[in-house]
Design brief:
This protein has about 350 residues and is an alpha+beta fold. The protein has 2 domains: about 1-205, Tetratricopeptide repeat domain (Serine Threonine Protein Phosphatase 5, Tetratricopeptide repeat); about 225-340, no CATH class. The protein contains 13 helices and 9 strands. It has helices at about 1-25, 35-40, 45-60, 65-75, 80-95, 95-110, 110-120, 130-145, 150-160, 165-185, 190-200, 260-265, 290-305, and strands at about 230, 240-245, 245-250, 270-275, 280-285, 305-310, 310, 315, 320-325. The longest helix is centred in the N-terminal third of the chain and has 23 residues, at about 1-25. The chain is elongated and about 75 Å long. About 40% of the residues are buried.
Length: about 350
């Protein structure tokens, strides 16, 4: 068991370093504008756009930009539970433990958080709707601020909430093992907590010990903002060098339910769009042929969307883009080598 105790301490120390180093990695120049560029742009992003973009960026190699997007989402809609939780998780993973605690606290409720931390509230007092991942994030934030007693209470409440014999509870027991090992408190038995962790999850060493971001693709309101956008090779102005590409900032589902518009709503109809310097779609051309009577409804549906415009030479600029998933057999579909990359950054350390 001594080997495991040392491993637990090493894992925690490595995690602390990784969390802090990750956020300090400055992003290289890419094709996405930052939140500071988009907030006051003609196509002001919706909370859904900021949220989908922020999660994707932070999980990729643009952690600073992702964190800025998630902050923007919360500023835009403070009561948006998923936006606030996502910001809290990003702050925790960035090593900003005090800020993460504050966001988890708002999400869970300040009075309830205080009662949980002080031991005046137990898992039996919590409703089934309590966000267990947020509670785990809060406990971890407190642990990394070296408040051992509060962290213990929160971890035990989390374990009870998810089921004391569940694999998820193993994450809490392993954290308590770390806590006992690092803090040296006499009222925690490091070996006993490790034994409990291994009993419910023998692979807990490789388990994710931090709360995970939600998968944006599982949220219909976020999915449209994840669809690929690239320059249209057949219409791109080769004399223009774009600093950034247009980004979808506000999406509206088509009002009609025709087969063509249903495909558009689902992202399976690929279209070429001329996004003006004002963020409005100026022209819409389907890549695959559609019936003549569908052209007007299609143009009207896309016309309700808004984009953050492309940038060229520091100015907003029009750009022809391809929007939607490519079909391998689709006429006009480009080969991968001809596509404008979405992100040219290297993986963060």
């Amino acid at each position: 068991m001594g080997h495991w105790t040392q491993a637990g301490g090493a894992l925690s120390a490595a995690l602390r370093v990784a969390l802090v180093v990750a956020v300090l990695a400055a992003p290289a120049a890419g094709v996405f504008p930052s939140s500071e560029q988009t907030t006051d742009a003609p196509g002001d992003p919706s909370v859904e756009a900021f949220l989908a973009r922020g999660i994707t960026r932070f999980k990729g190699s643009e952690m600073r930009a992702g964190l800025a997007d998630l902050r923007s989402a919360v500023r835009l809609e403070p009561a948006h539970a998923l936006a606030r939780k996502s910001l809290a998780i990003a702050l925790l993973r960035a090593g900003r433990f005090g800020e993460a605690e504050a966001e988890f606290t708002v999400g869970l409720g300040e009075e309830r958080t205080l009662a949980l931390s002080s031991g005046r509230l137990s898992s039996a007092d919590l409703s089934d709707s309590t966000d267990a991942d947020a509670l785990l994030g809060l406990a971890t934030s407190v642990q990394f601020q070296e408040r051992a007693r509060e962290a213990e209470r929160l971890y035990r409440t989390y374990a009870d909430l998810v089921g004391a014999m569940s694999k998820d509870a193993g994450r809490a027991y392993f954290r308590l093992h770390e806590l006992a090992t690092e803090s040296g408190v006499e009222w925690l038995d490091a070996e006993a907590e490790l034994a409990k962790a291994l009993a419910v999850d023998p692979d807990v060493r490789s388990a994710t010990l931090l709360p995970a971001f939600t998968d944006p693709t599982t949220h219909p309101e976020l999915e449209p903002y994840l669809r690929p956008i690239e320059l249209s090779g057949s219409r791109v102005d080769t004399t223009v060098e774009y600093d950034t590409l247009p980004l979808l900032s506000r999406w509206a589902a088509p009002a009609d339910t025709s087969e063509t518009l249903l495909a558009l709503a689902q992202g399976t109809l690929r279209v070429e769009i001329l996004v003006g310097a004002d963020g409005f779609p100026d022209e819409v051309i389907p890549v695959t042929p559609v019936a003549d009577e569908e052209l007007t409804p299609l143009t009207s549906a896309v016309g309700a969307w808004r984009f953050t415009p492309a940038r060229a030479a520091g100015e907003d600029a029009p750009a022809w883009i391809l929007f939607g998933e490519a079909d391998d057999g689709e006429p006009g579909a480009q080969e991968p080598d001809d596509q404008e990359p979405h992100d040219q950054e290297a993986d963060a350390p």
